[in-house]
From TrEMBL:
SUPFAM superfamilies from the UniProt entry: MurD-like peptide ligases, catalytic domain, MurD-like peptide ligases, peptide-binding domain
Residue span(s) of domain Mur ligase central: 185-378
Enzyme Commission designation: 6.3.2.10
Protein name according to UniProt: UDP-N-acetylmuramoylalanyl-D-glutamyl-2,6-diaminopimelate--D-alanyl-D-alanine ligase
Keyword Membrane: yes
Entry GO MF terms: ATP binding; UDP-N-acetylmuramoyl-tripeptide-D-alanyl-D-alanine ligase activity
Lineage: Bacteria, Bacillati, Bacillota, Clostridia, Eubacteriales
Segments forming domain Mur ligase C-terminal: 400-522
UniProt enzyme class: ligase
Matching Gene3D superfamilies: Mur ligase, C-terminal domain, Mur-like, catalytic domain
Keyword terms: ATP-binding, Ligase, Membrane, Nucleotide-binding, Transmembrane, Transmembrane helix
Membrane-spanning segments: 6-23, 70-87, 108-127, 133-152
Length: 533
């Protein structure tokens, strides 16, 4: 009997640990069973090694004398599983997006634990010997990740029903607010920053609510509408994210935007969208959802956006950092400095012509572009030059997006670690190149989720690094191969290429080469569910 008790207690510990880990991974892929399965196949290679070790345990358990085999197997299992958990725990980096125990996460966790418990009960009922029972528990551990997958599939219809109730409630709240102006923002990149900038500028005149952080999914937006939208709010700035075709249309059917801002159409989420044409159609769904008296705003610096601006016959304004035919709001004299950007705004919106100088704490030409989106919207909504300038000066850098960090050691640190894409990484390097200072150092793992073009884009990234930086610290030995190829093609000194396995290791290497006056760019950080092994 003691064997059964010890085995069950230890299995409970194993079950809670691994189910919590796989719950986190499921949350990071949006609780989508197919994406979770793809993650298991692509990144959870250690699971295969664990399976091999514990299946081997089942084999050798039969080699022990019968009287001692169950105790021997239990001791071996506890020892090996404990070592495995300890190793797994220490190899995991600090989560960029920690597990959030939402009600949905709790329901999924409970379902997974219930499945584990059910299989334990079945094992106890079926197997009449302690040895066979322990074998059953080990088999459950071996396939615990797939039990989470089964739990996802079980909970999916239940969650959809729960979500639909919340969505319907949010939709009714928006419908009742006839006076509320909803501004939808989408794009392959730039949408979160643009949302912050528009909200900050418009707040100089209007009571404005925005979706916080990266709340850009149906449930994220629904939560904001249900819990934060008040009668005093005059404008709701709503970021809209998309990983699959049809996602933007789904969001528009919840909040009914009257203005739409399309920031860019690029390669982000090419793997899940399938083609750039699908990305274009999905993003443009925001503009198609606007009413006939709606207003559309397009980024004229993005060729596809500029092309799309001519497609629908509604009131349309185009913004961009370069003056050309068809641009309504543009900027000149753009300069990146250690204190931030300075530039001059020129605008012609709704018959209102303006020109004024601006300063901001932000860096990067693309941030000027995103600010111009806010200027265009503000001019349309009747803000004065002074209100717009004041709003621009109040804009704080979005955390981890070309954010200048305060240091006490004379080193300028630029944090652009939230994510990276071909266009964004090029703009970050452009900002770095314009700044005066000592050595220019980049710390980066490169770019991910670019599908078939990932190698080529990272190689180009390496070529751009070679033209801007004095040192390159690359995170991930496999991931860095295309970047190194690009660096070498530009004859970048090999002794200035430093390859490490983690951000902590990169920081240690950085401390050996950095000095007063240097500028360090942290470009991209890998997601928590990424593993290159």
């Amino acid at each position: 009997m003691l064997v059964y008790v010890l085995a069950i207690i230890f299995f409970a510990f194993v079950s809670v640990y691994y189910n919590r880990f796989y719950l986190h991974m499921a949350q990071l892929v949006g609780y989508k069973p197919n994406e979770f399965l793809n993650w298991l196949n692509k990144y959870d290679r250690d699971n295969f090694k664990r399976n091999f070790i514990f299946l081997f345990l089942l084999f050798i358990s039969n080699l022990f004398p019968k009287d001692y085999s169950s105790y021997a197997l239990l001791i071996l299992w506890i020892a090996l599983a404990s070592i495995n958990i300890y190793t797994h725990y220490n190899r995991r980096k600090k989560a960029k997006k920690p597990l959030n125990f939402t009600y949905r996460a709790k329901r999924l966790f409970a379902c997974a634990l219930f499945l584990n418990l059910l299989l334990v009960i079945i094992s106890y009922a079926l197997f009449k010997s302690p040895l066979a029972f322990i074998n059953g528990l080990i088999l459950i551990q071996v396939f615990i990740s797939y039990l989470m997958l089964i739990s996802l599939k079980i909970m999916l219809p239940i969650e959809k029903k729960i979500q639909q109730g919340f969505i319907n409630e949010a939709r009714e709240i928006i419908k009742r607010r006839k006076d509320l102006l909803v501004i939808g923002i989408t794009g392959s990149y730039g949408k979160t920053s643009t949302k912050y900038f528009i909200k900050t500028i418009l707040s100089e005149k209007y009571n404005t609510l925005m979706t916080p952080e990266s709340y850009n999914t149906p449930m994220g937006i629904t939560k904001v509408v249900r819990e934060q939208l008040r009668d005093e709010h005059e404008i709701f700035v709503c970021e809209m994210g998309a990983r699959y075709v049809g996602d933007i249309k789904e969001l528009c059917d919840i909040v009914y935007p009257k203005m739409g801002v399309l920031t860019a159409v690029g390669l982000q989420h090419l793997e899940t969208m399938g083609s750039q044409e699908n990305i274009k159609k999905t993003k443009y769904a925001l503009i198609e959802s606007l009413p006939d008296d709606g207003v559309a705003f397009f980024n004229g610096d993005n060729d596809i956006c500029f092309e799309l601006s001519k497609r629908r016959n509604i009131e349309t304004y185009v913004y961009g950092t370069n003056k050309k035919e068809g641009i309504n709001v543009y900027a000149t004299d753009i300069k990146n400095t250690r204190e931030g950007l300075k530039f001059t705004v020129h605008g012609d919106v709704d018959g209102k012509i303006v020109q004024f100088e601006c300063r901001t704490k932000l860096l990067g030409k693309h941030n000027v572009n995103n600010i111009l989106a806010g200027v265009a919207v503000a001019l349309k909504l009747g803000l004065s030059e002074e209100e717009i300038k004041r709003g621009i000066e109040k804009i704080e850098p979005v955390p981890h997006r070309l954010q200048i960090l305060d240091t006490n050691n004379g080193v300028t640190v630029i944090d652009d670690a939230f994510n990276s894409n071909p266009e964004g990484s090029a703009l970050a390097l452009e900002a770095l190149s314009e700044m005066d200072g000592g050595k220019k150092i980049i710390v980066t793992p490169g770019m991910i989720e670019l599908g078939e073009v990932e190698y080529e884009e990272n190689k180009k990234f390496g070529q751009r690094i070679a033209k801007t930086c004095d040192y390159a610290i690359l995170v991930g030995r496999k991931r860095s191969i295309p970047i190194v190829d690009g660096l070498k093609e530009e004859n970048f000194p090999e002794d200035r290429i430093i390859i490490v396995n983690s951000l902590d290791e990169a920081t240690k290497e950085l401390s050996k080469i950095v000095s007063i006056g240097d500028i360090v760019l942290f470009e991209n950080d890998l997601p928590d569910n990424y593993n290159e092994n």
